[in-house]
Specification:
There is one protein chain. With 254 residues, the chain is mainly alpha-helical. The protein has a two-stranded parallel sheet with strand order 1-2. The protein has helices at residues 17-32, 34-42, 49-73, 79-100, 106-114, 117-121, 126-144, 153-177, 179-188, 199-211; strands at 13-15, 146-148. α3 (49-73) packs antiparallel against α8 (153-177) and α4 (79-100) runs antiparallel to α7 (126-144). The chain has one domain (13-114, 121-207).
């Protein structure tokens, strides 16, 4: 007896990896980069058409930046897993940046890698879960419902190179058209580069790993070797109190 023929789910959408990368880039640009939008649009004093034009150019820059990165990283076999990791990691990064007012620069990534399990457990709680799950559950489910289209190697290479080249040209054109506004934003808010969705922690993580996550202990050097006790130390009237102030993390809530 012959077995029943295998039937695939008809509701699954088939997309090329480049089109999937474009949709993911739009999502990263609009949702995951919300802190970039807050900083950038807050600096725009003029309303009306200029406000709309800058927002359009910023959307183009963010989308094309993500698309260029995804064109270099995505493959047909790894697209689902890699995009899932980026979606979750971007949501977690945005949560910590927004909740604690931090930037995921190389120094902060190094602190994360040096954190002890007990110290990290205090930050990984129900509040983080309630913030990340509603934001990323639907996109992840939709992502895994997409089937990646299979193409011949030559055709897939041509489409990938064309997509990367077109997105890079559009990125450069958008920057040129809004150069004055982007230059002002970069000059007044240098930290904005650390607010990008996944480029910030990918860059910071790569920089930390390339230089070594653990810093080599340096030699202990004496500080203030010329200091001398004054006359008040010879016969102190009260017990001596030594106070040490350690500034590990400075935030407005503390």
């Amino acid at each position: 007896m012959k077995g029943a023929p295998h039937k695939s789910f008809g509701w699954r959408l088939t997309l090329g990896s480049e089109r999937l990368a474009l949709l993911a880039s739009l999502y990263f640009a609009v949702v995951s980069c919300r802190l970039v939008w807050q900083v950038a649009m807050a600096g725009q004093v003029d309303g009306g058409s200029s406000h709309f034009v800058f927002g359009t150019l910023l959307l183009s820059v963010l989308t094309c930046t993500h698309l260029c990165v995804l064109c270099l990283l995505l493959t047909r076999r790894t697209a689902h897993l890699l995009l899932t990791i980026l979606l979750v990691a971007s949501a977690v990064a945005a949560y910590f940046m927004q909740a604690y007012g931090i930037y995921l620069d190389p120094g902060m990534i190094r602190n994360v890698l040096h954190s002890e399990p007990t110290e990290a457990a205090d930050l990984l709680g129900l509040q983080l879960l309630c913030s990340v799950l509603p934001e990323e559950m639907l996109p992840v489910l939709l992502l895994w419902a997409v089937r990646i289209q299979v193409r011949p190697l030559f055709r897939a290479t041509v489409i990938r190179l064309g997509t990367f080249t077109l997105s890079l040209c559009l990125l450069l054109l958008s920057v040129m058209l809004g150069y004055q506004d982007f230059a002002t934003l970069a000059r007044n808010h240098k930290e904005v580069r650390y607010l990008l969705a996944h480029e910030n922690f990918l860059y910071s993580l790569a920089r930390v790993l390339s230089t070594g996550a653990a810093t080599a202990p340096g030699a202990l050097l004496p500080v203030g070797g010329d200091a001398r006790r004054g006359d008040g130390w010879k016969q102190p009237r009260k017990p001596v109190l030594l106070m040490i102030v350690v500034g590990e993390t400075a935030r407005s809530v503390n």
